[in-house]
Design goal:
Length: 358
């Protein structure tokens, strides 16, 4: 524990020193953008320049990433902090709370105009949605990653990072919620999903659509987000150190209640059921979910399909069962909203309102 605290203090000190050095050379005509590094493939390395799978994530530090894209200094005053150095499959609730608090602290400073967060792609969409709900500023916050490690001959990280800094530096990105910059596209943190295991165009918003493009290193917007976010949400994580435990139970042919019963016995406060189709409840599962609700667990019906509105009182009588439906959120994003909702209330009607609001 003492070592962990010392390491965290050293990281904070290094981040401060880098920020001071950057500020001394700042161009007053440019926006000040802070890059918060968390690891991931964008900071990964492989055995050879052609290694694009089987590489090691989170090995390159933030200063090396910044130095690899010197062109960024022409579009923003860039400083960096190494917040974490992990592969994103290891991202936890505690990591999210630490990151969100740091983002809010930085954005409260007048001399910080935007934030870029480098992140592994596996859970990037989840971190983006969490921040979309808890960041308390209209200033741009942009998540960026890469599908190929920094050592690859065709690494996509440098151009993605350049675009992300350009996006965070433009006033036009303010008030649009947390954004994702990947593959020359701009996506909303609420709606985007990773859709392919390895391709560089993996981040998609297939039905609701991306927000815009990058061309020549400049962002162009074509649509707005409509769901409330950031400064418009009711969630305050400033005094939170833990989030209520919420898990996801996945449906499939011949599924039984084993996972649901295990989660309830483990003490979850909320449970997202990723049902088939329109969130259908298999006959073997329905009694277990009803029993969970009777024990006080808040149940959210979602779908494993990945697109579309989850109809309330469609494949199940949600009013009678006292369930919540996920609207258009994926199961993994519904889990995030449910955790935050449970920090405010256990009332399923209020929680359903939140799912239709955010």
């Amino acid at each position: 524990m003492l070592f962990q605290k010392s390491a965290q203090s050293m990281i904070a000190l290094l981040g401060f020193l880098v920020a001071v050095a950057s500020a001394q050379a700042a161009d007053p005509k440019l926006a000040n953008v802070t890059i918060l590094a968390t690891g991931g493939t964008i900071a990964g390395t492989g055995a050879t320049s052609t290694t694009t799978v089987g590489y090691t994530a989170a090995t390159v530090g933030i200063q090396t990433l910044i130095q690899a894209v010197p062109e960024m200094t022409r579009i923003a005053n860039v400083s960096g902090e190494q917040v974490f150095q992990i592969a994103s499959e290891n991202m936890s609730n505690e990591h999210w709370l630490t990151l969100a608090k740091r983002v809010n602290t930085l954005l409260a400073q007048k001399d910080v105009h935007g934030i870029v967060i480098t992140h592994g792609t596996d859970t990037l969409e989840e971190t983006a949605f969490f921040l979309n709900l808890v960041v308390k500023s209209k200033k741009p916050v942009v998540l960026v990653g890469s599908m190929r490690p920094s050592s690859a001959i065709s690494a996509d990280g440098p151009v993605n990072l350049y675009n992300a800094v350009a996006l965070a530096a433009t006033p036009d990105a303010a008030g649009r919620g947390v954004l994702v910059a990947m593959n020359d596209q701009i996506h909303a943190g609420r709606d985007v999903s990773k859709s392919n295991t390895t391709m560089v165009d993996t981040f998609r918003t297939p039905e609701l659509g991306m927000l815009g493009y990058f061309q020549g290193g400049k962002p162009f917007f074509y649509r707005q987000v409509t769901r409330k976010h950031t400064t418009e949400t009711e969630f305050d994580i400033s005094s939170l150190n833990v989030l209520p435990p919420v898990d996801v139970a996945y449906a499939y042919a011949n599924v039984g209640p084993t996972a649901i019963d295990a989660f309830v016995n483990a003490g979850v406060k909320g449970l997202v059921h990723a049902g088939v189709g329109n969130g259908s409840l298999p006959a073997k599962v329905r009694p277990a979910l009803s029993a969970a609700r009777a024990k006080g667990v808040v149940v959210v019906r979602a779908s494993r399909v990945g697109q579309g509105i989850l109809a309330r009182n469609g494949e199940a009588n949600d009013d009678e069962l006292d369930f919540v439906v996920a609207d258009t959120l994926s199961a993994q994003k519904a889990r995030i909203l449910l955790m935050l909702a449970l920090t405010k209330t256990n009332d399923t009607k209020e929680i359903q309102r939140m799912f239709y609001t955010y």
